């Protein structure tokens, strides 16, 4: 089964775009750089879109103690899970977890 089939909708299931918001605090830049170097090789196999990877986002209100913001979208939650739970991503994510403390949020898109 390929990544696209794994993310296929079940009959009667509505597809809603999901957004992944990641806020990172670097703890080991070398480990994070190893993750980052392999990220696109894995990511491009799935139906995600990298919307932003910003190490200097403008803080307009409040305080922010992180070093990087990443924003991705996937056609639906199944597509996100197919990527995030794939053996390839689980393997490279070890370096992400070793290299940065992360807050990872999954938000459903608005479906009128």
Describe the fold and architecture:
Helix 2 runs antiparallel to helix 4 (87-99). With 112 residues, the protein is α+β, with helices and mostly antiparallel strands. The protein is flat. It is built from 4 helices and 4 strands. The protein has helices at residues 3-6, 29-43, 77-84, 87-99; strands at 18-26, 49-54, 68-74, 100-108. The model is unreliable at 1-7 (pLDDT under 50). 36% of the residues lie in helices and 28% in strands. It has a single domain, classed as Alpha-Beta Plaits (2-Layer Sandwich). It has a 4-stranded antiparallel β-sheet with strand order 2-3-1-4. It comes from Bradyrhizobium pachyrhizi. This is DUF1330 domain-containing protein. Residues 17-109 form the DUF1330 domain. InterPro entries: Dimeric_a/b-barrel (IPR011008), DUF1330 (IPR010753).
Low-confidence stretches: 1-7
User: SSE order, as H and E?
Assistant: HEHEEHHE
Helix content: 25-40%
Average pLDDT: 90
Number-wise, the strands total 4
Separation of the first and last Cα atoms:
32 Å
What is the 3D shape? flat
Architecture (CATH level 2) name: 2-Layer Sandwich
What share of residues are in beta strands?
25-35%
In a few lines, what is going on in this structure?
The chain is an alpha+beta fold and 112 residues long. Helices cover 36% and strands 28% of the residues. InterPro entries: Dimeric_a/b-barrel, DUF1330.
């Amino acid at each position: 089964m390929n990544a696209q089939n794994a993310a296929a909708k079940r009959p009667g299931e509505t597809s809603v775009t999901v957004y992944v918001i990641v806020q990172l605090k670097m703890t080991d830049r070398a480990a994070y750089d190893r993750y980052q170097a392999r990220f696109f090789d894995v990511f491009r196999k799935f139906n995600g879109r990298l919307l932003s990877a910003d190490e200097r986002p403008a803080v307009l209100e409040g305080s922010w103690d992180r070093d990087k913001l990443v924003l991705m979208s996937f056609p639906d939650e199944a597509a996100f899970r197919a990527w995030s739970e794939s053996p390839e991503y689980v393997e490279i994510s070890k370096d992400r977890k070793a290299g940065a403390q992360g807050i990872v949020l999954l938000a459903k898109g608005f479906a009128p």
